[in-house]
Write a structure and sequence with these properties.
InterPro entries: FN3_dom, FN3_sf, Ig-like_fold. This is Fibronectin type-III domain-containing protein. It comes from Sphingobacterium gobiense. By secondary structure, this protein is α+β, with helices and mostly antiparallel strands. The protein folds into 2 domains: 87 residues; 81 residues, Immunoglobulins (Immunoglobulin-like). It contains 4 helices and 8 strands. Strands 3, 4, 6, 7 and 8 form a 5-stranded antiparallel β-sheet that branches. Helix 1 runs antiparallel to helix 2 and helix 2 runs antiparallel to helix 3. The longest helix is centred in the middle third of the chain and has 29 residues. The chain is globular and about 60 Å long. The mean pLDDT is 89.
């Protein structure tokens, strides 16, 4: 019996990071995609919901209060609802055509395990930013990854900074930092299948 391919609409069991990566992947894949000319809801609306969820997630992790966690959980619900609605739209347009479906960025029942958990990030390099108290972070790009996370700390300290997200493997600026101090940085990659291992630490003295 032939499989009818479709975008999966279940998001409630996804971890917060996984949901954020999935939403960002979908928005990036569907933007200017000729197959999806009138997405419902509009991608700008989904992006606003993602930005709100991302901000509240960062606040909850930074402060960890019950109120911040509740606000984060509340902001997740409309994002899940928008993604479900967008999945229905994608399924109605693609009508089971796998290559078109995959171009949407949605996880599908026909991906066949082609996307795997990211590898450990390699090639992490630090350099001077344009101003004193800045570092530039670069690392090797991976396939099937739309989001990376990085953290930094003064070398010798136990606690890392909060996690910062970026979609670029080049020219990430870390600031403000204390001049003449040595910092260390680590990076990891995320996709819809999970989170990769943290990279080896890269260190440098900030000018």
């Amino acid at each position: 019996m032939a499989i009818k391919f479709k975008a999966l609409i279940g998001f409630t069991r996804m971890k917060d990071d996984e949901l954020m990566v999935t939403a960002a992947t979908i928005i990036g894949a569907m933007t200017d995609n000729v197959h999806f000319e009138q997405p419902t809801p509009e991608l700008a609306t989904v992006q606003e919901l993602l930005d709100d969820f991302s901000a509240k997630l960062s606040a909850a992790r930074r402060r960890g209060s019950p109120e911040e966690t509740a606000l984060k959980n509340e902001s997740r619900l409309p994002l899940e609802a928008a993604l479900r609605q967008l999945a229905y739209y994608v399924n109605s347009v693609t009508e089971g055509h796998l290559s078109t479906l995959l171009s949407s960025g949605f996880p599908t029942n026909g991906a066949g395990g082609s996307v795997q958990v990211p590898l450990k990030v390699e090639g992490v390099k630090l350099g001077d930013g344009r101003q004193s108290g800045q570092m530039r972070l670069d690392f090797d790009k991976q396939r099937n990854v739309l989001l990376y996370e990085y953290q930094y700390r003064l070398q010798g300290e136990n606690e890392w900074s909060e996690r910062f997200a970026t979609s670029s493997s080049r020219a990430n600026i870390i600031a403000p930092l204390m001049a003449a101090e040595r910092y260390e940085v680590r990076v990891r990659a995320l996709n819809t299948q999970g989170t990769g291992d943290w990279s080896d630490h890269a260190t440098m003295i900030v000018r």
